[in-house]
């Protein structure tokens, strides 16, 4: 995998360096005269780029132009300006990357301040991307971080295609799968062969308390995010009957108030949803949870637990983010500079007991719904109901879709069989859920196209009747 | 801590995400700590950042160097305007700015000078972190800190290699927060109250709803009684017997009028948990070691709280506990109706509280015998009795002494010539190089070639001096000429620190821990 990647990357780099030479920019030792560099500024980076070594990538050639590429051409996208994002920006900026874009749809909260060190109490309420960019640009002269206070889904291929490498510090598996799918959609196959110049490497980091992981994804070549969905622990959802009639833990009491009592009593008005960041809302839930707990002699309901359950809070600390971001940034540097062979391809970190890391090569899944190019098979009897197919798409550990919309091409026309996300269409197509696949006119071998928040492209499935 | 939203302080809000990891008491320990960093390099300030953000009480940077352009290039906590200024002062400003709760100080002095003039300066710290120290300074400082009982964390980064060494005589951990701890259910030796509670159930004469909502712990206990009657009061021991026991439980699942088994999830849970539920109750070896520790057999007025508690727990084990630790008091969630679950949970909880108060009495009488009054709470330690840990890291002096060097560990790791151990040997050799040449190998491009040879000499002399019959590949020597350079756990006494050397290889993204 590595040799192909590096030849493609070095091609991109070589072309760009030629452009630079043609535009007659001077290469002064340490950087550009206009770029606010000072003596010795990039010494730490130059030792890697300008000297040969026994462990470097076989294709690596030391040169002074590599530093120029980093400083002037290499474009990096950082997704997420939170715990990992802040660390990533710092690490990338100090490593010489200057053309950095950052995307984050959130604003700053007080509880971010214990680790998201680009933010201060006065910044609470402002967009994370904006504040992070301002801080880095002023602390690291010459660095030009461009912020985007937006959801990743509002950008299309033309935006993502401009980057050499994309690094993620996300807190959502759905978002990870989305960007994964986006990078898959950029791949071009000619005659069944992948055009490697369309690959944009994805470095993905994740943390939770004292645990974290970092991985390198080369779309179309290595295991992708969806190939290893089973690695993610399932979200804890308490069974409804426990919550409704048989609570045993303080968490059950809280979820009762959150899921059942709030929608019924609408304490802050009609249509006002529970906002986990609103202390008044949490206070309301907390008090009612205590009441419910008292009914069943359950102890342990606290304000902190209440907020934790409602917001599904994951504990977080600065050091884990620092470690994982450092690993990710090293990989970005290695790939951009071709100095060392990058991580192949998954690193796990845990410092609950001592310090533990484990590195392994996650394998591609043959029939991965995101990267395998092969339509996924759906095996069902013709008497199965559409609801059964919907359930499978959601519950299968390999797919884990959230609210899939199913369409089929029938008689030359696109027919929406079921769609949840638009109320009027949901109502119209709901009766289809109870109909059998045969009744719906679907034939054996029929292709179904499924759209879902977990991917920017529709996923193709082939229906195989078992009876 | 205040419960309502209005009472939730700004600090509680700010630290919320970390309080969920180490609790208010852990945070308190952090806020009472004063850490010393020696050398405000990029590594050093990075470490401090991760202590300042969560709210360490205070830090002091000791650094005699002036800020250079190269420093500013790789250190986020130095700016161009700091070039020429003292590095300790410059870094303190930008680190202090991260968190107004923290008090930052600096000393514009080299550690060697301080060791010459005022070694007791270092006694006031909860932890000293030494970064990029040359070997001689490092060993001197290590000696002072070892004798003063101050934990010392040595860190070095060199190119893509990271190194950490923890040196502390003894570090005690009450809350180790193990990831996959076994439950303390006492099914093999039920205490009286548990026995009575189990008796109160009559599985054969319950209505369907109650039968299906009986906690699996009770189910297992009941069937264990049946098993005992037929197997001479012996627990199911091997796979075959456990299978038979599971089958016994399975046969207890209610059947409908057609003889088909009903859906009883609690029975399924019982069957699933047979493997671990029948583990004999015993004291983990790590805890045995603590209870039998030689060093603290005699309690005096100076004995630290941890060891007084350990002794009290030991006395409990030998008397009221009948060979067992105090009951932990928690049970996992399980299918059951609220009342049955809460009642069962309370049986365990009340027993745990009882045991804890017995242990407290032992603590009180131990302290009285040396003329002290009990001021600390023992409940937390009782709950965590099975998770107590002690970490003892060898002194640097021992690690570096020719007689006491851990030859076995080094040689056996080097059976694989690419083990991270080779990086350790390289770092030691680089120190030797510095000693001889007053600089690190390969600082300037023209030196790289020649330094490879010189560094190789250092490697060989190191191996010879320690009698290490290992082979260090030339590749590593070359690589090191190319380069031209677990605090929170210590302070909160929660979670277990590494013992005692950690090496990180960013080239391969691998790491290893060695005891040297």
Automatic annotation (TrEMBL), chain B:
Short name of any one Pfam family annotated for the protein: ThiF
GO biological process: protein neddylation
UniProt pathway: Protein modification; protein neddylation
Isomerase among keywords: no
Alphabetized InterPro entries for the sequence: APP-BP1, ThiF/MoeB/HesA, ThiF_NAD_FAD-bd, Ubiquitin-activating_enz
Boundaries of every THIF-type NAD/FAD binding fold domain copy: 15-129
GO MF annotations, alphabetized: NEDD8 activating enzyme activity
Keywords linked to the UniProt accession: Ubl conjugation pathway
GO cellular component: cytoplasm
Gene3D superfamilies tied to this protein: NAD(P)-binding Rossmann-like Domain
Family to which the UniProt record says this protein belongs: Belongs to the ubiquitin-activating E1 family. ULA1 subfamily.
PANTHER family: NEDD8-ACTIVATING ENZYME E1 REGULATORY SUBUNIT, UBIQUITIN-ACTIVATING ENZYME E1
Function: Regulatory subunit of the dimeric UBA3-NAE1 E1 enzyme. E1 activates NEDD8 by first adenylating its C-terminal glycine residue with ATP, thereafter linking this residue to the side chain of the catalytic cysteine, yielding a NEDD8-UBA3 thioester and free AMP. E1 finally transfers NEDD8 to the catalytic cysteine of UBE2M.
Protein name: NEDD8-activating enzyme E1 regulatory subunit
Organism: Scleropages formosus
